[in-house]
Amino acid sequence: MGFWSRLFGKGEDQGSAPDREPLDLSVFRYDFHSHLVPGVDDGAPDLAASMEMIDALVSLGYQGAVTTPHVMADMYPNTPETLLPPFELLQQAVAQRHPHFSLALGAEYFLDANLLDTVQRDGALLTPGGRLLFELAFSAPPDAGLLQEFIFEAQVKGLQPVLAHIERYPYWHEELHRFEELQEQGVWLQVNAASLAGAYGPEIQGAAETCIEKGWVQLLGTDAHGMRHIDALNAARVRPALHTLADQAKNSRLF
Predict the structure, then answer these.
(1) C-alpha span between 152 and 251 (Å, rounded)
(2) 156-214 pLDDT, tens per residue?
(3) CA 51 from centre of chain
(4) Torsion over CA: 248, 174, 237, 53 (sign)
(5) What's phi and psi for 94, nearest 5 deg?
(6) Of 9, 41, 60, 78, which is least packed with CB atoms within 10 Å of its CB?
(7) SS3 of 9, please?
């Protein structure tokens, strides 16, 4: 069965905990991880696709989004200069259709020596609200020294490091305590709504649920590249872990 058909296929096991009534997603207010800027990465290919996702976010109760295109030297060598023009076109379209929907431009930075160098030399970074969203490789764990130096340097510069989709790093599924250690160092941790819906399989779903239950997670994101991720967000509304995260959000200033 295909990757996304697992999510919506009838009879599939989506976890042992019983579903709840669909959650009112307005409690989260903002989506902090998405790929809505048209034509700059593997997210929205054009403005129409961007607006379709934003229309759906509005209908689900969101007040705004921080959209975070990939920045990866070899694959997506985006910079503020390349991202701002298409973002401004998107912002104009959103202002016309949804004037009360706030849109900010961030980025999802791949952690490598280039990113560390940019932070150290005060290079141009997209960090709305001081938040620096970064991701790790999926295939192998990061160099421990690089990760620790990056966290230290970012914090020295007054930035808040945020690790994207923590549940999707399979090499740490048997070592979830690593996320507790990162949180204790001041790193904010983000999970994807699609993971809670079971879209990436039970192991990733279980990791996301455990991290939420432990109280380690600060942010929810759609990681929306297309409508399939918005559909997954909608499907996740009945999942107990999302309700738990929403309860935490009500008493938090992070959302």
Answers:
(1) 28
(2) 999 999 999 999 999 999 999 999 999 999 999 999 999 999 999 999 999 999 999 99
(3) 19
(4) positive
(5) -65, -40
(6) 9
(7) coil
Please give the residue range of the domain that contains residue 37: 23-250
Contact status, residue 94 vs residue 55, Cβ threshold 8 Å: no
Distance (Å) of CA 140 to CA 15, 135, 144, 166, 172: 27, 12, 12, 14, 10
Domain count, the chain: 1
Asked if 82 contacts 119 with a C-beta cutoff of 8 angstroms, the reply is: no
Instruction: Give domain status of residue 15, yes or no.
Output: no
Q: What span, in angstroms and rounded, lies between the C-alpha atoms of 50 and 54? A: 6
Amino acid identity for residue 180 in this structure: E
Show the CA angle centred on residue 215, arms to residues 151 and 169, nearest 5°: 55
Residue 203 lies in a domain: yes
Is the whole model's pTM more than 0.85, yes or no?
yes
